[in-house]
Amino acid sequence: MLFASLALFASAALATPLQRAGGLQVEISAPKDAASVADLSFEAKITNNGAEDLKVLKYGTVLDSLPTRSFAVTKDGAEVDFTGVKLSVSLEENAENAFTVIQAGETVSVTHDISALFDFESAGAGTFSFEPLVDFMVTKADSELDALVPLAGLAKAKVDSNAFEVAVSNVDKVALLGEAELEKRSRVSCSTSSYNSFISSSYTEGKALASLGVSYISQYGSSGSIYSAYFSGVSTSSVSSKLSAVANENSSSRTLSCSDPYSVCDGNVIAYTLTSTTNIYFCSIFYNEVATSRLCSGTSVASRNIRGGTTLHELTHAVASTDDVTYGCANDQALSASNKLRNADNYNCFVTQVYASTQC
C-alpha cells in the first residue's frame, strides 16, 4: 500500500528545472494536486553542473532544511503570510556547518514540508503558486572561510526560479512540530537563572540600541554616514518606524525563551522568532555574546556578537515585519534599497555601528 501511494505521488509530480547560474541547477518535485495542506511536501534537487566543487550557503535558500522560508507563496497574486521561523545566525563558531558542499556533477536533495509554514487557512482553498528561493552564495569547496568574516569573498550565484502551482482542497491549519507542547509563559522564560538574566539584559540593551538609532536618524537624517551605509535610498521615516517599534515594544504576552521547541538550534543559529506567535527563542551560542559596552573595547561591529543587537534583530521580526535577506554587515550594505529596509541584520549592524561611533 505504501509503495502504491509513493508510485501514485511520483506519477502526479511535476519537475520544474531552473536556469543555470554558476554551474548550479535546481529542480523541484511537487504534487500537482493536494487533498490537504498536510500533503505539501516538496523535494528540491540542486545539481552542480560546473567543473569545480562548490560550497553553498544554506540559509535563506531551498538548501535550508530548517522551518524557514525557502519558498515564496502566493494565491491569486496575493502573498500568503509566512508563519515559520526567522533566524539570527553566527558563522564564526561553526562556519562549515552553514554550507553544503556539492561536488562537480553531483546532486543533493532537500525535502521541505511546508504544511505548517504558511497561513494557507486564511488564504482559503484553491491554487497556490510556489517559487523556490535560490539566491545562492557560493565559493570553491576547498576555499578557507575568513575566520572573522566568513561570508567575505563569497560570490552570488542566482538561479532564476520558475514558480509552480499546486491546487489544495483542504487548508485547515497544520501545527508546526513542537507547537502543541508550548505553554503560555511570562516574558522571559528560562529555568536557568543565569540565562534568564542574560536574556533580560539583552532585551534592555536591544531596546536602548533601537532608541539610539532613532536619535541618530533624528539628528543626522539620511545624510549621516552610517545611515547612508546601511539604508541609502530608504526613507528615514521607514527605518525610524521599525526601530521605534522595537524601542517601544512592551508586550506582556511575547515569550523570550531559552528553550528550542522547534529543534532549530543547529550550532550556527543564535536565536529565532516564530512568526505565527512572535515568540523568540535563544540558542546556546547566544550566551557567548557580549554586552553593548564591549563595542568600545574587545569586539567589533563586524563580529555581530552583541547580545542586544541579536535581540533587536529578533524583535524587528516580531514587531516590524523584517525578513532575513542576508547576513554580515558588508553584505547588508550591498543590498538594494528595498532589501535594506526589510533585512533584519541591517538594523543590527546599523545600531551597533551608531553606538561604536557615538558612544565610545
TrEMBL record:
Its biological purpose: Secreted metalloproteinase that allows assimilation of proteinaceous substrates. Shows high activities on basic nuclear substrates such as histone and protamine.
Subcellular compartments: Secreted
UniProt superkingdom: Eukaryota
Any single Pfam family the record assigns to this protein: Peptidase_M35
GO MF: metal ion binding; metalloendopeptidase activity
Catalysed transformations (reactions): Preferential cleavage of bonds with hydrophobic residues in P1'. Also 3-Asn-|-Gln-4 and 8-Gly-|-Ser-9 bonds in insulin B chain
Stretches assigned to coiled coil: none
InterPro entries: Fungal_M35_metalloproteases, MetalloPept_cat_dom_sf, Peptidase_M35
Cofactor note (record): Binds 1 zinc ion per subunit.
Residue numbers annotated as active site: 314
Record GO cellular component, one term: extracellular region
Key words of the record: Cleavage on pair of basic residues, Hydrolase, Metal-binding, Metalloprotease, Protease, Secreted, Signal, Zinc, Zymogen
Protein residues bound to Zn(2+): 313, 317, 324
BP GO annotations: proteolysis
Secretion signal span: 1-15
EC class: hydrolase
UniProt keyword Cell division, yes or no: no
Enzyme nomenclature, EC number: 3.4.24.39
Family: Belongs to the peptidase M35 family.
Protein name: Neutral protease 2
